[in-house]
Each structure stands twice: as C-alpha cells, then as structure tokens.
Sequence to fold (237 residues):
Amino acid sequence: MTPEALIDTDRWPLDNTALHEQLHSIFCAENVVVLPGFIRHEYIDELVRESEELMTVSYRSEVNGKVNVVAYDQFPADSLLRALYEWDGLMNFVGKVLGEAKLFRYADELGALNLSSMIDGDDLGWHFDQTDFVVSVALQPSISGGEFKNAARIRSADNDNEDIVRAVRNGERPDLVRVEPMTPGTLMVFNGRWSLHQVSPIVGDVTRHVALLAYDTKPGTESNQELKFTRYGRTPA
Ligand SMILES: O=C(O)CCC(=O)C(=O)O
Fold:
C-alpha cells in the first residue's frame, strides 16, 4: 500500500493550491492547523494495531511527566507510520501549509518520528520542542483526559518571553492556552519550537496513541544529548 492511500485525498487534496492557501492563512493567524479525518477511517484500526505492537518496545520516559516513546530507529521497514513520514508528498504538503519553500525531515535518528503512547495516569508536562515543526497524527484518544494543550507561538527566536511562559506553566494564563481536538485520524501541524504545549493526565484503560512527525527548515537539525537520554533512555547506536 502507498502512504497516499492512507490519506483522505477527497477531503484533503494534497496538490490543491486553494487548499494550501486556505490552510496557510489559518497557520498565519493561529499558528496551528488541524485537519480532521486526514487519515481515512478504514485504516485507523490497522494503525492502532501497529501502534500497540510498537508500544511493546517503547521506552518509558519519566522525566517531564510519564510517557512511552517509540524512537524512529525502532519503526520496522514495513511500518505504515514510517512510510507516511518518509513520503515526500506529505512533507511537501506540510511545507505548503507552513509557507516554507523547503522542509527537511528532522535529522535526529531517534526523534524524527516518534510514537507517543500514554496510559492511565500518564501525562506530559509543559515543554517546547527542539525541532521547528511537528505534525501529529492522532490515532487513538484516551477515554478521558489526554488533552493536547497549546500556547501557540508564545516565544520567538528574538524573544524568550520568559514572564509569559512562566505564567502559562503556572496556570495563570488560561487565555493563551487552547485545547486541540484528538479525534482518530486528525493531522495537526504546529510550531513546537515556539509553542509551549502539554498533554493532560490520561484517564481510563484505553491507551492514547499519537504519531509525531518532525520537520525542520534547515537540514541536519538534531535534539541535544540530554533530551535523547530523557526521552529515549539512550543515544543512537
Ligand atoms: O502527544 C501529543 O499530542 C504531543 C506530544 C508531545 O508534545 C511530545 O511528545 O513532545
């Protein structure tokens, strides 16, 4: 199966210039773009099955919350999620949404593609990413909790905006925080380097699975060693 077959191109025609312009203007205004039903619903069960299997080799990261993470080098060659990430058609589409002439897959051997699998009681604390952009693909929500909360573009290359960032971390600026929907098959594009985000505690015995596809505006970008150890428990072999 080609990765394109996973995508509902009737609803989201990846080559359509008018769609690119529409989504790009949403990104400019809101710094986040949410595409519900991006993955065809008939493939969700298969992707959840893949996620359940991948989760068995995940690393349990307990530094900034608790989350089970599968690193890029753990996705087998026949993984559908790997195929989707490595498909230029998706990367080019994401570039159009972002208004970037050229995007690069994150050069991080562990962080380029992740599966994040969260179980009852897990959460992920407020953080920024070390790559420019992350595309998340929601595969299975938890029964309750597991909300993706985002304070979009709260800092920039020129301004750390420390006071506001601290206020959001302390729960004092709910007006800056938006919860994004997690329906299965939703694709979300956001600017993780400049947007402070978290996942609220999972409630119930259904695992929340989300695939995270990382892109950068420059080639060769990687996360630092500390992040690799805290998130994957190791550096690449
Ligand atoms: O699970 C999500 O929705 C986002 C996860 C995330 O921000 C991360 O793993 O860095």
